[in-house]
Each structure stands twice: as C-alpha cells, then as structure tokens.
Amino acid sequence: MVEKLKRKIVVPGDKIGVIEEYIPHDGAYEHNGEILSSLAGFLEEDLEKHTVSVKTVRRILLPKPGDIVYAVVVSTSEKNALVAIISVNNKLLNNCFSGLIQVGSSSMYSMKSIRSAVKPGDIVKCEVLGYNNYIYHLKMYGSEFGVVYALCTKCGGVLVKSGKELKCQICNNVEKRKIASDYSVVGLG
After folding, report:
1. Where in the chain is the domain with CATH 2.40.50.140?
2. CATH second-level architecture of 2-55?
3. Ranges for all domains in the chain classified under CATH 2.40.50.100
4. Domain 68-148 bears CATH identifier 1.10.10.10
5. What does pTM read for this prediction?
6. What pLDDT was estimated at residue 104?
7. Rg (CA), the chain
8. What is the mean pLDDT of residues 13-25?
9. What is d(CA 51, CA 1) in angstroms, rounded to the nearest whole number?
10. What is the pLDDT of residues 108-154, one digit of tens each?
C-alpha cells in the first residue's frame, strides 16, 4: 500500500527518511544513514515494502551547474547578494529558487563589497556554480554576466547604459554596477 504524505513536495538534497526506517527507491538515495531526495517532486512511502520514493508528475526545471540564469536581487550585504532565480536557460520559471552571489564570484577585479556591483531590484544574468544548503550558488564573473536591467536608486526611473556607467533618464543620476555585455536598456547618445 503506497501512502502519499499529503503530496509533500521535496527537492534534491531534502532528507526524506533514515535507513533504519526505509529502503531508498525511485528518486531517492542513501548518504550517511539518511535517505535523501535526488529529484524534485512528491514524496511517497510504501509501508508494506518499507520504501520511500520521489515521484514527479511533470518535469520540474531545476538549475544545474553551468546553466545560465536570470534573477532579481532581493538583498545585499558586504559579502553577498541574495537573489530570486526567475529564468533558467531562457525558460521562465513558474516559481522562484533562491540564489547567492558572493564577492569573489562577481567580477574580474577585487571588490570590497557586492553592493558596488548590484542593488536590490536589479535583474542579473549569472551562471550556476552549484547547489548547497538549499540555495544555488551563482557567479557573475566575465563580461557576459552581471546586471541586465536596473532602476535608479534615487527616483526609480529606468537606468540606461552610458559607457561603463548607468544613467537615469529622469533625474540624470549616474550609478555604477557590474554591467553585463548584453545590458538591455541602451542610451540614445
């Protein structure tokens, strides 16, 4: 008899049992006595066979190392920026995944603070490095990665690319960011 645990959703790496209780089955594996999910999907346990599985109803798109993602910057600190991943390999997601950009992975030059590269609300283009502790680790190293869309921190107007800086067309405020080579708003002059 397969019992569905209230259609609990799990993602890769989630603990779904222990080896003393279950045998890992489809979409599950054992590591150090714990049973972990290897898929994103719904948790199922078979009480008769003492197995635990993860079943997918449809394919859920998950970022993996090397994928190109677009994300919205949620918050920044001196050392990192927390982002919400909204697109993977140019495919828009139905729900967001959390990502982290750290100072050392953000540019070719040494920065003292990630705040000089991105601001909350910016849309950034990054590459996925890996997944750890329920968060995707991202890099912005290289000219193709960085901010692709930004708003003025003073008035909220759209910032347009003006050389190596961004300029607000409303209040003329000039701001610096780690700009991607394909920044999407280009100035007229």
Report:
1. 68-148
2. Beta Barrel (2.40)
3. 2-55
4. no
5. 0.66
6. 67
7. 21
8. 90
9. 11
10. 444 567 888 999 999 999 999 999 878 999 999 899 999 999 999 99
